[in-house]
Amino acid sequence: MAFFKVLSSFFMLTAFHSSTFSLAHPGVDFGWDGSFHPGGGFSGLFPGFYQCSCPQANDIVLSVLEKAIAKEPRMAASLLRLHFHDCFVQGCDASILLDDSASIVSEKGSGPNKNSIRGFEVIDEIKAKLEEACPQTVSCADILALAARGSTVLSGGPFWELPLGRRDSKTASLTGSNNNIPAPNSTLQNLITLFKRQGLDEVDLVALSGGHTIGMARCVTFKQRLYNQNGDNQPDETLEKAYYNGLKSVCPKSGGDNNISPLDFASPAKFDNTYFKLILWGRGLLTSDEVLLTGNVDKTEELVRRFAEDEALFLNQFATSMVKMGNISPLTALNGEIRTNCHRIN
Ligand code: HEM
């Protein structure tokens, strides 16, 4: 941990200097992290954003995460997913954390989120500690990004230099949440289209799907594969037989919708490249996992094979793609606000 802290301070400092330089020359991109958002242009985020205003921000996030993940290892996965579901809906702006109110229809009730998305109490605990240490300074959107990185690192995955400075939205989008977050039975074309909409390409799609190296999914998200994949009452033929038989016992034809199964059954709490090896063996849990290999797109098929062969390649690309995802349409400067309570607008 000491090494991690030294490493992160080193990155914070070097990045702070390079970003100060970049910001002093608007319009000139020195491209230290390729942080562009889909609308084009420079995202305006930089790793040293809290260097002066809240230098202990990352340590506070990590201290809460360490406890939460020690208590329940799955929490790391849940927090990683929370950042993904935030970023795909009007950008990484913590819109996912807003509760229903007079002006807000919460995204928590959307198809992809309802009875599914979790980790809100951990974000609340982090926010409470940060408000105590540095009032009205660290945004809920940055907390989600820091929690996603910390969760990855604490699960044995890669570290990345994380651009910060996102502000929080004053709106949420239930429609955006329903339409932009891919469904587990998506075709590969559909996945590619939804990722492209966010400025993410096939490499990002395959690498970020590797987030499924940790965590669980409910029976209802993979039941169709077991009993009626193509409307002919037959299972998905790409499912390996022994794995298929095991899944049927967790996920019966009727009922059991909330029973859970690991996305990477070989090492569900370890951030490694086993997810890709399992896909090669027909043991990917969701249709959206297996189609990366079988969906007739050479590029994604090739990437699954390469990530399965070369763990370092996957971990590096995951880190790069997480920075890209974290840069989706952030609110900066005078846009948005720093919420004092992540559940509601100020
Ligand atoms: C490519 C399109 C994707 C689809 C269709 C998809 C779908 C799903 C589904 C259906 C679940 C299970 C939810 C439930 O049972 O309640 C899940 C879990 C998860 N997803 Fe994805 N996902 C995708 C991409 C991603 C990305 C990009 C990340 C992060 C980088 C991610 C991280 C996770 C994690 C960590 C879990 C486990 C959460 C937990 O255990 O609480 N997913 N995903």
From TrEMBL:
Pfam families named in the record: peroxidase
Q: Which cofactor does it need?
A: Ca(2+); heme b
Is-annotated flag, keyword Isomerase? no
The record describes the protein's role as: Removal of H(2)O(2), oxidation of toxic reductants, biosynthesis and degradation of lignin, suberization, auxin catabolism, response to environmental stresses such as wounding, pathogen attack and oxidative stress. These functions might be dependent on each isozyme/isoform in each plant tissue.
Instruction: List the CDD domains.
Output: secretory_peroxidase
Catalytic activity reported: 2 a phenolic donor + H2O2 = 2 a phenolic radical donor + 2 H2O
Keyword Metal-binding assigned: yes
Q: What class of enzyme is it?
A: oxidoreductase
Question: Could you tell me what the cofactor note in this record states?
Answer: Binds 2 calcium ions per subunit.
- List the protein's name: Peroxidase
Query: Which residue intervals define the domain Plant heme peroxidase family profile in the entry?
Result: 44-346
Q: Which organism is it from?
A: Vitis vinifera (Grape)
* Enzyme Commission code(s) on record: 1.11.1.7
Assigned keywords, A-Z? Calcium, Disulfide bond, Heme, Hydrogen peroxide, Iron, Metal-binding, Oxidoreductase, Peroxidase, Secreted, Signal
Subcellular location(s): the record lists: Secreted
Q: Which domain of life is it from?
A: Eukaryota
Name where it mostly resides: secreted
